[in-house]
Amino acid sequence: MKKLLFQLDTDAHPAVFDTVVAYDGGADHVIGHGNVTPDNVTPLVEGAIFTRAPKDKKNTALFVGGSDMAAGEKLFKAVQRNFFADFRVSVMLDSNGSNTTAAAGVAKLLSSGAIKGKKAVVLAGTGPVGQRAAIMLAKEGASEVIVSSRQLSRAEQACADMKKSFDVDIKPAEAADCDSRGKLIEDAQIVFATGAAGAELLKAEHWENNSSIELMADANATPPIGIGGTDMMDRGKERHGKIIWGAIGFGTLKLALHRACIEKLFESNSQVFDAEEIFSLAKTMA
Questions:
Q1: Which domain holds residue 34?
Q2: Kind and range of the H or E run holding 119
Q3: Is residue 6 within 8 Å of residue 33, measured between CB atoms?
Q4: By the 8 A CB rule, do 249 and 281 touch?
């Protein structure tokens, strides 16, 4: 029986990246659908859940992707509303790679030192990766998690959204430039930079002599990278007494994690992989 993965993308064209990783994760065929919304997804889901016998349903799975995590979350919920009894298949959400990227980054930080009881700052953290990382850090017992943005209103809205969806208390902060971000991390032990590609969030001078910082990660692999004075290839490298993970450094785990999730989708017809489930798997792989 062929393992079929239906790629439900909120963008016009299903992501090539996700298609390649799906094949590498063990799918025999990947069938992509673009411009999928909660309003038009039902026939696609019904085609997946009504076609195979109960014992064979594990060989069909759904992957929700696209560049917009908010749209992906709505689609992910809409997919599951069509499930009932044993008429369901496994489903994964990883819009823009946000869940797997955040999970890999935080898992590598966790493998390098303690998170519980530590203060963590997620710089430029209002995007999907930043929010997911903040949630994971909070769930791991960080004493305080701060999410920064250039605009306080954006940080406040992101924190409110995280509280509503995941019941975690995250603090918003405004930090519009490198100097203000340097001030924000003065007493932090953990720093995770999750800004846009090519956006430098900190210069070396803002962290090298900070004796409080223990662990740092940067999700940006496009020069200039997010944390000046580090390297995208850093794999738990010690710099100035801090353990550093660059985007490519933990990106190896991100790809392996994505493939592993795809493989697990076909173990049963009841797997649901969102941020928490993906992070749990990441911790066992890190």
A1: 4-93
A2: strand 119-123
A3: yes
A4: no
